[in-house]
Amino acid sequence: MTISAAFNSAMSGLTAASRASGLVSENIANALTPGYARRSLELSSNLVTGRGVQVVGVTRHSDPVLVANRRAADSAHGSASTLSDFHSNLENLVGRSGSVNSISTRLSTFENKLLTAASMPDSATRLDGASAAAKDLALSLNKASDGLQASRTRADKSINTQVNRLNDVLQTVQDLNARIQSVGTQQGNTATLLDQRQLLIDEINEIIPVNVINRENGKVALYSEGGAILVDGSAAQLSFTPVNATKPHMTVGNGLLSGLKINDIPVQTSGDNTAIRGGTLAAQFEIRDVLSTEAQQDLDAVAQDLIERFEAAGVDPTHIPGQPGLFTDAGAALGSPTASGLAGRLALNAAVDPSQGGQSWKLRAGLEATDPGAPGDATLLKAFDKALTDARAMSTDRFGTGALTAGEVSAGLLSRVAQNSNSAAQTLTFSAANKTEMERLELETGVDTDAELQSLMLVERAYAANARVIETVNGLMDTLLRL
């Protein structure tokens, strides 16, 4: 080997060692960086001269199976967390069993106040207490209904935010595809661009679970789990129109709420066949269009049961058919069919509400009574209590079959909400554990700092050896020049 050949080989070795040390330091520095994949240097012998080494490129190490499994866990956890938050909030709205602010406790308090007033029907204080308890019961259903609609409005706004973010990220993925193709064609290093694209795909996947399909020149196509094209050459455009506030009667079916379109084509947003199933976007649609609607129906059923119990014939002898009873639909008698959102409109009859100019003695004398009547007569107060404790059939079996008392209806509501909340919490716990495990497995294939430090020691030795060769060549050259 000539002196020049030895010098060129050593210089190529120094260049390769320098590049390798840079990669090792980059790996160690980014060991905890999300989306970063370990790099390694690809080397080969110099095919032009046949001597020395040349850098072929940089390899980015990423296991597609582990990444896919981790993404599936991410999207499942995002969906479970969103749904669990909704159920937990609903449980807080209706109250937990035994809570002083629960609908069931408010009903029990009202029953007790009626019995207390019946034991001393001439006491204005006790009658006022019964009226206040009835009003608190109505307000608890109002609050639950209003809170439910607030959750529904938040879901609608969240859908809009996620759709806007998706449009931005999908466009960025399209742009990164083009840049990766351009840089790769010029034999440039695309690892950093690939890291950026992986982070964006992870973000998309949490909103809508995706399948990643590799295309030519480093590009990828993205399809949702339900088969919708999100990116394939060009990015899809999603469209959605939010509302300022939702109301119980507003649905996608009657056109008062917006559905979702992909490239101006309407897509199903709920059920097993939706193109966006899984992830946080589908969860928000389920909250807005399914879970909130069902919960509102449950609240309305409780409110309807209360109104019907006191509008029933024979409960209040002074009651005029067609006129409101003790509980009203925003001051009116219960209509048929009942409009959605009854729980939010439930109100105590103003005739017995002192704060609205009414007289609490009408709880004793009758809602349509014109005079207080006999102050010691507790017949109507006992009839009102009996109306609550009598078992009657309901129009829905969601709280149980057969005839139910008012207490059993409210207890059934709380039990149903608590059961759904517990089930959602269990699903969240499982998905969180699965997500943690998938992240751990992916990290195991990531940057191992111990291994990188060992590699750095090998690089150091290679660098020193090549430097020694150059030093020797330099000595030889000096000797030749002295001859």
TrEMBL record:
PANTHER family: FLAGELLAR HOOK-ASSOCIATED PROTEIN 1 (PTHR30033)
The species this protein was found in: Phaeobacter gallaeciensis
Family matches, as Pfam families: Flg_bb_rod, Flg_bbr_C, FlgK_D1
Domain Flagellar basal-body/hook protein C-terminal: 446-483
Matching InterPro entries: Flag_bb_rod_N (IPR001444), Flg_bb/hook_C_dom (IPR010930), FlgK (IPR002371), FlgK_helical (IPR053927)
Alphabetized UniProt keyword annotations: Bacterial flagellum, Cell projection, Cilium, Flagellum, Secreted
Domain Flagellar hook-associated protein FlgK helical, residue spans: 88-313
Protein localization: Bacterial flagellum basal body; Secreted
GO cellular component: bacterial-type flagellum basal body; bacterial-type flagellum hook; extracellular region
Domain named Flagellar basal body rod protein N-terminal: residues: 7-36
Entry similarity comment: Belongs to the flagella basal body rod proteins family.
Annotated GO MF terms: structural molecule activity
Protein name: Flagellar hook-associated protein 1
Keyword Transcription regulation among UniProt keywords: no
GO biological process: bacterial-type flagellum assembly
